[in-house]
Amino acid sequence: MANMISDDLRGLLSERHVDSPVARVVRALSGHGAVSAAQIARTTGLARSTVSTILSDLKRSSLVVEVETRSPGVGRPAIAHSLNPEAGTCLGVLLGRNEARVVLADVAHNVIADVAIPLERDYRPEKATRVIKQTIDNIYKEHSLPFSGLLGVGFAVSGAIAANGRILRGASIPGWSGVDLRATFEPALQKPIFADKESNCAALAEMMWGAAVGVEDFVLFKHDVTIGGAIVANGRVLSGYAGTAGEVGHIMLNPHGDLCSCGNRGCLELECGGSQMISVAERRGGRSLTLPILVQEALAGDIGLRRLIEDAGDVAGRGLATVGTLFNPRMIVISGALAAADDILLAPMRASYGKYTLVKSGDVDGDLPTFVVGKFLDNDNCLGAVGLVLRHHGRLI
Amino acid sequence: MANMISDDLRGLLSERHVDSPVARVVRALSGHGAVSAAQIARTTGLARSTVSTILSDLKRSSLVVEVETRSPGVGRPAIAHSLNPEAGTCLGVLLGRNEARVVLADVAHNVIADVAIPLERDYRPEKATRVIKQTIDNIYKEHSLPFSGLLGVGFAVSGAIAANGRILRGASIPGWSGVDLRATFEPALQKPIFADKESNCAALAEMMWGAAVGVEDFVLFKHDVTIGGAIVANGRVLSGYAGTAGEVGHIMLNPHGDLCSCGNRGCLELECGGSQMISVAERRGGRSLTLPILVQEALAGDIGLRRLIEDAGDVAGRGLATVGTLFNPRMIVISGALAAADDILLAPMRASYGKYTLVKSGDVDGDLPTFVVGKFLDNDNCLGAVGLVLRHHGRLI
Questions:
Q1: Which branch of life, at top level (chains A, B) (predicted)?
Q2: How confident is the prediction along chain A (397 residues), in pLDDT tens digits per residue?
């Protein structure tokens, strides 16, 4: 039974060129999770009556189920619709700097498993394929789920993916530049492969489940050891022809600045990235540190580390001001290890953004853009990789 | 007869929330001009057979006509479909620094009239409404066209339009900041009003008829007395919440630079804008100059003016490099008076772009992005204002 409905679902999701009303409703459910009929009508542009008829048919064939959602406060619980959790599963895989991570979710957006795999710093594609396949097999066995129900595997990569599916020069996993992701993983997994750089996946996670639900235009700023970013316009994560759109860390602040790993000089990342901050803090303290510890000690009151984070926020705000001048987003979501510093980082960032960007406070109604901390600081990349499959974004073919 | 079909067309174009297949086909024709059935199927996502049936019906009701298009070379002329030119008209109006301009086109994308109206530098909304209405009346009378067939009026404005329809602080027409465009023009015109900043209109013109036809992701760089810009992502011109998206001229190159009219320091416009170039050239030559004359004399061999343009191209390329790092576009279209300098401007621009942007030559196949001169240096703003109506972009309500 479960297998039959996953076949139906696979057909509807992959029906890429025939834009039937049924396929549009199924894609809206896949992309948004539990939603009301009214929301589906808005998302798809279909008439409310058409949506109702389609939902009834889909419920009869067990592809869709009704769920109750209750808003805070009194009142009747609202009826929402979701894909049947038994209709299929999706995997999100993070290819990180020294770990892989696998998240399994069902098509109703429930996370079923989340497994981290530590790896040596220079792990190779062959090794990654082997351990990831083994981990996936174990997860499906442990949860007694049919592998046939797997709709696709999304990869969040520490590097940009060009339109031809290859990882671009400059990826932060050594030895992976130029690797063809589909050719690497499809033979072992035998499922559709989706991929995007990790900040784009993080933006997808925040848009689908996190701080940016319902926001069609926002920027994600990933402030960690390195600096990543993503730009979402009209509800879509921008990729660019080389897959590098949103790379806020590599806008140039100083043409005569230090040489960056990307081949340019004076990049934003060199002026306020976590790696530089750790160097300064280690020199000052005479001991080795990690970024989470640095943030924790600043929050506990270390005045020097506070200042280090404040100054980084000030410089980052200057870089984001340029992004603001070009994009004029409604929201800026801060993620990465430094986001845990909250207002120590965000207050100076907001102030310098306001000073250096084109649209000033008072030019428009309201205090825009809003700066918020992301909801999934721990696993946004991997959760977003699941989102790639649910939204059919970044399919490699 | 013509009136009846414009009523039908108005209904289909304004059917904004009911996304019927017929309305989608009509919108594709309105947005793209003469296109084949296969192109319509691709654009709308509808099945080819559905498109054929709908086109037959639309032809029977005279809303659509067949036109022959002939590609260069031998071969049979191809059959394309277009909205019936008699089905309706659109107006594009430029509100410029010291002129207004009115372009009349039919829904088959033919330009019928193009009238410039010189105005004093500080013309006011009341005056503009009066002379523009008078000009429109004259045009419709002269061409014996029914005013009832007018579907809407698009405005290209030398300033950003916020989401509430008001012109933002910083518009380059004095006294127009805060003006509500719809409230100003709708009572006199009694038609739907559309508006966007002039560089966004220019991008729309290049995308619909010019250098960027078929390119879904590009940047327009308007290099003139001031510097404007527009960003097109996934086939849509980005606006941003204050209407300022794409303002490349106001990204900050130097935090301690000169004060800019926008309220920031060291903006790109101050370092390579036409106004600054004219000042330098006038000081050097001891006579007054305009930007077109400056370009003309550089093309004729004036080595000093050549260098002035080359240096401006070099700085502009550095600013565009940042846009490239963030957007990774396939094409950069150069418009404005300086675009006429062609490779004197474009060669150093391309070189410095390549030096300062993230994606280097060799990172991806092909020499991307391509730098091209726009097709409508003379009237892209006003033509794009017609495009606002045809694409239902920037409707003020």
A1: Bacteria
A2: 556 677 777 777 765 545 678 888 888 898 888 889 988 988 887 888 889 999 999 998 888 999 887 665 666 667 899 999 998 999 999 998 889 999 999 999 999 999 999 999 889 999 999 999 999 999 999 999 999 999 999 999 988 998 888 999 877 787 898 999 999 999 999 999 999 999 999 999 999 999 999 899 999 999 999 999 999 999 999 999 999 999 999 999 988 999 999 999 999 999 999 999 999 999 999 999 999 999 999 999 999 999 999 999 999 999 999 999 999 999 999 999 999 999 999 999 999 999 999 999 888 877 789 999 999 998 999 999 999 999 988 888 8
The two beta strands, B227-233 and B236-237, are antiparallel
Q: Are residues A235 and A169 in the same domain?
A: no
ipTM: 0.91
Neighbouring CB atoms inside 10 A of A254's CB total 13
Q: Are residues B228 and B360 in the same domain?
A: yes
**B chain contacts of residue A358, beta-carbon cutoff 8 Å:** 170, 244, 247, 250, 262, 264
Domain tally for chain A? 3
CATH code, B322:
3.30.420.40
Residues A21 and A123 both lie in one domain: no
Query: Are B65 and B98 within one domain?
Result: no
Q: Describe the crossing of helices B380-390 and B198-209 by its angle, rounded to 10 degrees.
A: 80
Whether chain B has a CB inside 8 Å of the CB on A67: the answer is no
Q: Are residues B218 and B365 in the same domain?
A: yes
The CA-to-CA distance between both ends of chain B, in Å, stands at 30
**A190 and A222 assigned to the same domain:** no
Single out the residue in B18, B53, B86 at which a domain terminates: B86
> At B38, is the secondary structure helix, strand, or coil?
helix
B330 touches chain A (CB under 8 A): yes
User: Whose CA is closest to A234, among B156, B158, B161, B245?
Assistant: B245
Per-window interface: A 252-271 vs B, CB < 8 A:
252, 255, 262-264
Look at strands B89-95 and B99-106 and give their pairing: antiparallel
Same domain? A295 vs A243: yes
Closest Cβ–Cβ partner in A19, A163, A252 for B356:
A252
Asked whether residue B395 is assigned to any structural domain, the reply reads no
- Do B284 and B348 lie in a common domain? yes
B112: contact with A, CB 8 A cutoff: no
Containing domain of residue B39, as a range?
Answer: 2-86
